[in-house]
Amino acid sequence: MTVDQQHTDIKKLVVLGGGISGTGAALLGAQKGYDVFLSDGGTLGSAFAKALQEQSIPYESGGHSIEMILTANLIVKSPGIPDHAPMILKVKSEGIEVISEIEFAARFTDEKIIAVTGANGKTTVTSLIDHIFNVANLEHTTGGNIGKSFAQQVYEGKSTYRLLEVSSFQLDGISTFKPHIAILLNITPDHLDRYDYKFENYIASKMRITMNQDENDFLIYNTDDPAITEAIKNANIKAQLIPFSMENELEKGAYLLNNQIHINTHNSLFTMPTEQLPIKGKHNTANAMAASTTAKLLQIRKETIRQSLTSFEGVEHRLENVLKINKVQYINDSKATNVNATYYALDSMEQPTVWIVGGVDKGNNYKDLYSLVNRKVKAIVCLGTDNSKIVEAFGNCVEQMVETSNMEDAVRVAYKLATAGDNVLLSPACASFDLFQNYEDRGRQFKNAVRGL
Questions:
Q1: For 149-184, how does the pLDDT look when each residue is reduced to its tens digit (9 = 90+)?
Q2: Is 121 annotated as a binding-site member?
Q3: Which residues fall within 8 angstroms of residue 99, CB to CB, at 6 or more apart?
């Protein structure tokens, strides 16, 4: 029995949420013979509405018709809808299976999946592996939590490898999703508002990436991360464990020694000096290790890996140099939506820094940043509708702190506070939804404001 035949006996599919993942799931469902209905509580983007109309898939927006939803045998829900939403609790109480879009897509493919997760760095690592695959000329698709949804990729046709960035929200809704290579970069408190403010719930969610792996699969993990090493100790993991470390020399896996990356797999060693990496900072060395370990497990040539690492240009909105104005460097790190990401950004600053911070706080604990702010930050520009938590946390750390509520003002204030040789860093440590559509919108507005100075 093929994967397709196994699952199309469920005929009525309801997709909740009409964004990138929901639309992808609806298109794939229709292609596989399901009777599909999509329901979006907000406004449906015109491109998504058009894609559904072209395939004659019925949908609603601006609210959910619960009686319609309850006719489903299977529900695919958007990662944005929490498990404890009343509607989800209701459908589950009726015994209807609720899964995520990556689980739904995985049911229609037996291709090799490479899945990357972690609180931070997953977009950089996914983009770096994608770059290595392009240089190596490997047939693959890239997406998931970035770019095209997994369901959209499967809908569009076959491929050899499926490279996916996956979030904890997507992993919460899996039951059979099984990556050939899973990459676990780090686990730091993030999105705790979705996990009853319990860090152990978030850790359990991230560990789901390996739950269906077997001894033919690989789990690449950061052995410097205490939350990960503890979770691995207590879990019954069947995959082959491939650690990477910035701190200790390892017999197998990847480690840093004398400013050189060493990767030892399949009894062969790959080495490369860190100075040849165009993406800077300790966290990016770790990201490069994780990506090149993946390439090595897939037996991509060492020369190809080396060429790929030296030619990678980084990710938009992640420590992206925008412009130098009057000898002040403006840096866009809008993708830093949590404290840990901002920690990496501040840690990599080598000049006095005017720091633009703020947005929607996700239960942040700013204590970890105090010593870095004391050492590196000369002034703080708050950017949010409610800056009270940031003012309270950092009021005593810096001489100057200014509150703003739009990007143009924030950039203008930073321009006045910075002098030659300084950095102006947008690294918000918060979600963007108070003033912006998403972190990309926030990053683009920052770049436009800087260019308008």
A1: 999 999 999 999 999 999 999 999 999 999 999 999
A2: yes
A3: 74, 75, 76, 77, 173, 174, 175
Q: Which domains are delineated in the chain?
A: 10-104 (3.40.50.720), 109-311 (3.40.1190.10), 320-451 (3.90.190.20)
**Does the annotation place 120 within a ligand binding site?**
yes
Asked whether residue 264 is marked as a ligand-binding residue, the answer is no
Token reading at 227: 């939350």
Q: Is 298 left (phi over 0), alpha (psi -120 to 50) or beta?
A: alpha
**Is residue 356 a contact partner of residue 435, using CB atoms and an 8 Å limit?**
no
118-122, 228-232, 447-451: range with lowest mean pLDDT: 118-122
Q: Residue 119 annotated as binding?
A: yes
Q: What's the token pair of residue 366?
A: 């700013």
Per-residue pLDDT at 2: 42
pTM of the model: 0.82
- What is the DSSP-derived secondary structure letter of residue 148? B
Q: How many CB atoms lie within 10 A of CB 176?
A: 12
Tokens 């739009």, residue located? 406
CA–CA distance, 166 with 127 (Å, rounded to integer): 13
